[in-house]
Design a protein that fits this description.
The complex is a heterodimer of chains A (257) and B (267). Chain A is α/β, with parallel strands linked by helices and 257 residues long. Chain A contains ten helices and ten strands. Chain A folds into two domains: 1-80 and 165-173 and 198-257, Rossmann fold (3-Layer(aba) Sandwich), CATH 3.40.50; 87-163, no CATH class. The chains are: A alpha/beta (257), B mainly alpha (267). Chain A: Keywords: ATP-binding, Cell membrane, Membrane, Nucleotide-binding, Phosphonate transport, Translocase, Transport.
Chain lengths: 257, 267
């Protein structure tokens, strides 16, 4: 279980800052964070694996506080947290297979990782994972030759190669067409159910969130304004989450009130 | 922010006026410098045709020049080897310096600063000056030429490599950090594969460039095809000197064509 407690983060300006963020995400469930752009969705996600250093609070993954981990411990923790991105962030000139094997880097010695010395078992596992996301025949293709949806699935396979407890998804479908969106979201939901993973997704498409998520966290101007099961989300809740989002300067006015 | 209303006519009138002023300033600078160095534009232009005729008459290789082909090709080969080897060795050091110096991969900001300063120093001393300085310590030899090219190339490539690395999408490297990769793994599995094709392009470009510079450096270090050119030139064997120029041009073009092919293959 992931438990975020009183997480605070301030940048120079008020934008993207977090104010006493509390929420939980359960294994076996898809948890979606929704809210207007600039509300702090990405900041929350990147605080969880400490790509962004927050100011104060607690981030408990199975009762271990990620924020207290030293460098070596953090590397081990990150090894078990997969992450996928809006822009996929694969290494383009490398093949799909090599990108999936990067998922093992956190568990390898420095030299073995640098030189790409993977065991036969690891290679077979990577190929099996590509098969699982339906890309076995693309294993030896350069990633920049794959479509957006295919690249995102390579990203998922890379995350699975980490034997993750949790996968963080930062706007995973924002650059995808509806068909690829469905494929990617179906895979993510399946992973939550079958492997009992914590799937935490930033989304700005409310309809997708309502369709796929079991648990919704609504955020506005860096503060949690709703948390609960998806069927408790109604028009009133959505209005609260997205209030003044369409007006320029909305974030500033919200802070002043 | 308030902007004063401006009609399109006013906007274009102002822009034209500004262009005119810039043009007048440029003409003023030209005329001023002409007067200063007592350069007579018209007299110089008149002399161009006669100069060209003399050039063609004396520098066109003749049948006699063919006898010089052997030594010329041998020296050209040596010059090519010096330019390739200096570029390759310099690029290895430049790559290490660039990884330590690029803002995205530097271990510390002060290291980055030192490397940038050093590279800028190496780069901004002209290769001819390098050759003359190194002549004192290493005398007239191929090695002096090698070192002169090496230092200049090191400065130039360090800068080019640093910028290439900094231009990479930082998120891709972050994605590897998120996997749990450490610094060296991020560099070897992320930065280098992403940058490889651009880096190779720079190395190929520098080899072309260094062949031209190596000729010039040879004049000073008394080696290679540059020195041969100097010898023929000073002993009035202009046709042989012309043959050298022609062969250098052919070699540079060949080199360019090859590197274009290689670049296309790895892109």
């Amino acid at each position: 279980m992931l438990k975020v407690i009183q997480l605070d983060k301030t940048y120079g300006s008020n934008k993207h800052s977090l104010k006493a963020v509390n929420f939980t995400a359960q294994p076996g469930e898809v948890t979606a964070i929704i809210g207007p752009s600039g509300a702090g969705k990405t900041t929350i996600l990147r605080s969880i694996n400490q790509l962004i250093r927050d100011d104060s609070g607690q981030i408990l993954l199975d009762d271990q506080d990620i924020r207290q981990a030293n460098k070596g411990e953090l590397r081990k923790i990150r090894h078990h947290i997969g992450m996928i991105f809006q822009n996929y962030n694969l290494i383009n000139p490398l093949t799909a297979l090599e990108n999936v094997l990067h998922g093992r880097l956190g568990a390898k010695s420095t030299v073995a990782g640098m030189l790409g010395l993977y065991s036969d078992d690891e290679k077979s596992e990577a190929l099996a994972l590509l098969d699982e996301v339906g890309l076995k025949e693309y294993a030896y293709q350069r990633c920049d030759q794959l479509s957006g949806g295919q690249q995102q699935r390579v990203g998922i396979a890379r995350a699975l190669m980490q034997h993750p407890k949790m996968i963080l998804c930062d706007e995973p479908i924002a650059s995808l067409d509806p068909k690829s969106t469905k494929i990617v979201m179906d895979i993510l939901r399946k992973l939550a159910r079958e492997k009992q993973l914590i799937i935490l997704i930033n989304l700005h498409q409310v309809d997708i969130a309502l369709e796929y998520a079991d648990h919704i966290v609504g955020i506005n101007s860096g503060a949690i304004v709703f948390e609960g099961p998806t069927d408790e989300v109604n028009d009133g809740v959505l209005q609260k989450i997205y209030r003044q989002a369409d007006q320029p300067g909305a974030v500033v006015t919200a802070n002043e009130n | 922010m308030k902007t004063n209303y401006q009609s399109p006519q006013q906007f274009y009138r102002q822009r034209r006026l500004r262009m005119l002023i810039v043009l007048l300033i440029l003409i003023g600078i030209y005329v001023g410098s002409m007067l200063l160095v007592k350069f007579q534009t018209w007299n110089s232009i008149v002399k161009i045709p006669a100069g060209l005729i003399w050039l063609f008459h004396n520098f066109i290789p003749t049948e006699r020049s063919i006898s010089y082909l052997g030594p010329i090709l041998y020296q050209l080969w040596r010059t090519l080897l010096v330019s390739i080897s200096s570029t390759i060795v310099a690029s290895i050091f430049a790559l290490m310096a660039a990884i330590l110096g690029a803002k995205t991969t530097t271990p510390h900001r002060s290291v980055s600063l030192v490397i940038r300063f050093g590279a800028s120093l190496l780069r901004n001393i002209p290769v001819v000056a390098w050759a003359m300085i190194l002549l004192f310590s290493f005398k007239q030899s191929d090695f002096t030429g090698f070192l002169a090219l090496f230092f200049m190339t090191l400065g130039y490539l360090t800068r080019a490599f640093t910028e290439t690395i900094e231009d990479l999408d930082a998120e891709k490297i972050q994605a590897l950090q998120a996997v749990g990769a450490n610094y060296f793994q991020c560099v070897f599995c992320g930065v280098l594969p992403e940058a490889a094709s651009t880096l190779t392009s720079w190395v190929l470009y520098m080899i072309e460039n260094n062949l031209r510079d190596a000729t010039l450096v040879g004049l000073l270090t008394g080696t290679g095809v540059g020195f041969l050119f100097d010898t023929y030139f000073k002993s009035f064997r202009y046709d042989a000197a012309g043959l050298i120029v022609l062969l250098i041009a052919i070699l540079v073009i060949l080199l360019e064509l090859t590197s274009t092919q290689i670049r296309r293959a790895i892109a």
